[in-house]
Amino acid sequence: MKVFDLHGHQEGLLKASGTNGLPQDVPLGDFYKHGVDASVVCAVGDPNSFGLGTNSFSMVEQQLEQILEKSNAQSLKVATTTNELNLVWDSGKTAIFLGVEGGDFIDNLEMVDRLYNLGVRVLAPVHYSDNQFGSIGFHLDGSGPKLATGLSKFGAELITHAQDIGMVIDIAHGSDAMIIDACKIAKKPLLCSHGGLRMSYGSKRFMGDEAAHHFRDNGGLLGIWPCRFGKVGLANQEELVDIILQTIDFLSWGQVGYCTDVNGAPGYLDDYRGLEDTKGLISELAAKSFTEDKLEQYCNSNIIRLFQAWGV
Fold this sequence. Notes:
three-stranded parallel β-sheet; TIM Barrel; single chain; alpha/beta
């Protein structure tokens, strides 16, 4: 069973911000031994949010170069298409797709083309700050924004352009208003790589009911965020399994995928360490009404199908 993690980061990225209490980093080279065969590994496009530097193209390019260097040094392979993904797997390596989380540094669509030429195939327009594309759903401390303005005109142009060139748009961290606007514009299924439904979590950090209905109708794919931040999030793995099943009941079997937010999560559950407990979580899902076919969808085929819909 191949496992495709929808969202993560390189080791050491957020540690440099000086944030205390983060989970232990997992080197890219250890992904495979923990049961992860592919992952979207993201550079942070709003590094100023973490005190890492200015929001600039060069800062993001530097992060992408670091991911490439670590991948080459640790026998991983960066893929840019789903066809390449199969080739990587046939070679026995872990596949990495490059992503960028936060487009604060992007001034024009030519910069998006430059990212594409660098191998980036997933772009989250917003991260922890409102920007030229739209408004966020929550701040770094978990609090909500005072005013959510939705998707801007430039944000709409970004989605249209990304569809044309084959770069998947990830609306994780977007406000409900932004998600609703994006769903109205997008002609392809959107990705929400790490999140959840407010109706299940009971927290404003997650997608509200109206946005969730639009996301469902768009055919989007949601990676269930298995984390805890203060009092926000789940208590244990049993709750995580229940939330996954609840989300599938509302969306569909084809609209939920596996996510750890490795090396970027503020905290995990009492009995779950994220990527390191991948095999255990999948075993528990297999015991909870996940047939082999349904488990295959959750673990990899849903995200592969979404990538193919975008031309990746």
